[in-house]
Amino acid sequence: MKSYVTVIVVFALTVCRGTALKEGDCEVCVGVIEKLGNLLQPEEKSNVDSIEAKFREFCDTAKKQDHRFCYYVGGLEESATKIVGELSKPMSWGMPPLKICEKLMKKDAQVCDLRYEKTIDLKAVDVKKLKIRDLKKILSDFEESCDGCVEKSEFIKKVEFIRDTQLKQEL
Question: Is CATH 1.10.225.10 correct for 2-112?
Fold first, then answer.
C-alpha cells in the first residue's frame, strides 16, 4: 500500500513539473500577449471584454506566426476553438504572460509549438553562401519575387539589388 502511494506522489510531481515553462519557451504566445498588453490602455487592462475586443482587433492585422496563434486561441472568425477567455481573464488579473501561456498550453498544446522565424541580417551575411531556400525567404520578406529565376546566380542578383536599394533608403 505504501508503495502505491509513493508511485502516485512521484507521478503527480512529475506531471506538475513537466508543464512549467521556462524563459524562452512559448515565444510566440508570450510575444503576442506582450504586444497585446502594450496595445491596451491602463483602464482596459482589467476589463475582460475590452481585452477580448482588442485581441480580435490585433488578430485582424496579425501576420505569420502571430496569425496562427490567433487561429489556435480563437481570435479569428474562422477559428475552430474559442479559448480567448483563457487568455483574457488571467490577463485582466495581471498574470504574467508566461503563466498565461502555461494555462493556454493545458487547453491546446499547439500554442507553444509555434516559433518565430529567424531573420537573416543582409548587412552581415554573404549572400553567395546562402541556399536558394534562404534567398527565396529573403525575397518574400521584402514582398518581392523573382519570376523566371532558375539559377542560384539569378536569385543572388535579385537579393543583392534589393539589399543595395534598402541600404540606400536607410541612409
Answer: yes
